Structure formats: C-alpha cells, structure tokens
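We store chain and fold; thus.
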Amino acid sequence: MARSSFKDIIQSDTPVILDFFADWCGPCKMQAPILKELKNELGDQLKIVKIDVDQNQSLAQKLGVQSIPTLMIFQAGELKWRAAGLQTKEILKEQLNSI
C-alpha cells in the first residue's frame, strides 16, 4: 500500500486526529488507549493517525510540535484544534462535536 502524503491525510472530510508521540514518552503511552476507546465509540466518523516525532522530525517541526503528546484535529485540510499534553476522551469528543 502506498503511503499517503500528509496533505492527502488532512484533506479528509472526516475529522482526522493526529497524535504526535514517541515510544519513550510516558504520557503518550497513556494517550493511546484513550484514542483507541474514542475510535471504538465513533468508528468511521473519525480517523486517527499516529506520528512518531523521532521518525518524522521535519513534519513535527513544520507544525510546531514542541512537546508530546500533541494532538491536532484536521478536517478538509484545516487545523480545527490542537493541544499539547494528555487529553481526556471527554475533551476530544467535545472538540469533535464542535466541528
């Protein structure tokens, strides 16, 4: 399967959560199950893309990711929301509902 470009991923009409993480990051490990639960609840209404900052340094830099986890919600190519640090499922649902 060909890798989608970043631009293709964020052009989706379906909201896309980008999860900037690293394997060595404790809070990132805590964020993963929250995102998984959210995906289980919302199914096709949402896409989640995990981006390892160690392997994608230029993208992280371009988007100004300075701490991890950093979550961003894009829809139709537009950044709708972003936050650094561990986010609860409730906060994420609230943001998705407002889009």
Strands lie at 16-21, 47-52, 70-75, 78-84. The first strand starts at residue 16 and ends at 21.
